[in-house]
Specification:
It is a single chain. With 434 residues, the protein is mostly beta strands. Among the domains are: 160 residues, no CATH class; 134 residues, Methylamine Dehydrogenase, Chain H, CATH 2.130.10.10. The strands form 7 sheets. A 5-stranded mixed β-sheet has the order 5-1-30-29-28, with no helix packed on it. Strands 19-20-21-22-26 form a 5-stranded mixed β-sheet. Strands 2-3-4-6 form a 4-stranded antiparallel β-sheet, with no helix packed on it. It starts with 7 loop residues before the first strand and ends in a 7-residue tail after the last strand. Pfam families: WD40.
């Protein structure tokens, strides 16, 4: 890989990333990736920042902030808001921070220092989070996200102020103890009025307007009996529902995965009938890349293929959902043999069903697999680049297709060596060349 194919760091929370100026990098030809439209490019420098009443206008200048040292705790994950203006990041101190990107992100000659606009503190670990699907920085009432904290109700909080807007109780009817969801899904297909939670052998549907102690509007067990899987003819899957994703084609199919290495498919956006379940253990991929429980499910843009990410795995599984339970292949060489949740991203790459998988590794590398669904069996990465000096816990593509956010770090003891706990935004102009 030549230097021309290297991503350029345009913003970072790490002080040492801001020493070197941004180089003027020529863009080599890479026509297999579709260039973003001019309207998409404006996402990063639009009037969202020009309105004096905009929440970002007062706080994007790092000089305004008392510079918080964010390197003390590792970044567990980061995600773009749907409007592309903001990053939501969770850290090892259990806090969730909002980073509003500056209007001149891609125009300055040096990298920006990223400082949090708002911080939602928590004394307990956050198990899952989900951003309101119609988040728009121009309308503060839409700048919301959900989070589940151990032994507490689910919180609906503002991304612009450290405050909860509403809470939703998920309580065991027998023990009256709080149930902590290990996965949350706030899909646009439900119109922003409902969200889904995944917990121990249970998927629940909540109505946003029914806050407080009313609980979910529906409870859907993933198995007829939590005690014995054989009850009910063995139908369903037992275990903590640790990941969920709805098919992007609009057919309403929900995929749910468990720490016990099962995947189930449900109709009607998760509130309908069970379409089928399958185990991802004891496959050819298991012998080569391992796996100890589902941590993320991602659909291909065409909705045909499901990408399954696990903890303690050196790759990503590829399943053809048109044939339920049939593994098409697997991506290897990811370097992610850890219990940490390490988020991948599936990115559309132009015409028809062409797409790519981007993922980070424990070695600080970011890797890309091009058109992984076109390969049967094992597939090695097509491209890789060093982006951090520690475990890359998230890779998140911006909707423009030429900007990527990554974050890094891991839990260490006092003598664990030098850590790279940072959040970075990268410009990749080579993805735009014709």
């Amino acid at each position: 890989m030549t230097d021309n194919w290297s991503p350029i760091c345009v913003a970072s929370t790490a002080l040492d990333s801001l020493v070197e100026p941004i180089p003027d990098v020529a863009s080599p030809n890479r026509g297999d990736i579709g260039s973003p439209s001019s309207s998409q490019e404006e996402c990063l420098s639009s009037s969202s920042y020009g309105d004096p009443a905009s929440p970002s206008s007062a706080n994007t200048d790092p000089a305004v902030h008392a510079q918080e040292d964010l390197s003390a705790h590792h970044f567990k994950g980061a995600e773009w808001t749907p409007d592309g203006t903001t990053l939501l990041a969770e850290s090892g101190d259990h806090h969730i921070r909002t980073f509003i990107l500056p209007p001149d992100l891609l125009e300055r000659g040096s990298a920006h220092r990223l400082s949090p606009y708002s911080t939602l503190p928590s004394a307990e670990p956050t198990y899952a989070s989900a951003i309101y699907p119609f988040f728009n920085l121009q309308d503060p009432t839409t700048c919301l996200f959900l989070s589940s904290v151990r032994d507490h109700p689910i919180r609906l909080a503002s991304a612009l102020a450290p405050m909860s807007v509403a809470s939703y109780s998920l309580v065991n009817p027998t023990t009256e103890a709080f149930i902590t969801p290990h996965s949350l899904l706030y899909p646009s297909t439900l119109g922003g009025t409902h969200f889904l939670t995944g917990s121990d052998s249970m998927i629940c549907l909540f109505d946003v307007s029914r806050s407080g102690n009313d609980g979910p509007v529906s409870w859907m067990p993933t198995i007829p009996s939590k005690r014995k899987q054989i009850v009910g003819g063995g139908v369903g899957m037992k275990g903590i529902v640790s990941a969920m994703a709805i098919n992007p084609t609009g057919d309403g199919i929900l995929a749910a995965g468990t720490f016990t290495r099962h995947v189930g498919l449900y109709s009607s956006n998760g509130s309908g009938e069970l379409l089928g379940t399958f185990s991802i253990a004891k496959t050819e991929a298991n012998r080569e890349i391992g796996g100890k429980g589902v941590t993320q499910l991602s659909w291909s843009p065409c909705g045909r293929y499901l990408y399954i990410t696990e903890r303690k795995s050196d790759g990503v599984l590829v399943y053809d959902i048109r044939v339920t339970g049939q593994m098409l292949g697997y991506l290897r060489g990811r370097n992610a043999m850890t219990n940490q949740r390490m988020k991948i991203d599936v990115v559309s790459a132009g015409a028809e069903s062409s797409h790519e998988v981007w993922a980070g590794g424990t070695d600080g590398m970011m890797r890309v697999w091009k058109n992984p669904a076109y390969t049967v069996g094992a597939k090695d990465p097509d491209w890789e680049v060093k982006v951090h000096d520690d475990t890359v816990t998230s890779t998140a593509f911006h909707s423009t297709g030429s900007v990527m956010a990554t974050c890094s770090g891991q839990r260490r003891d006092e003598n664990g060596g030098r850590a790279d706990n940072s959040l970075k935004v990268w410009s990749m102009p080579f993805l735009n060349s014709d």
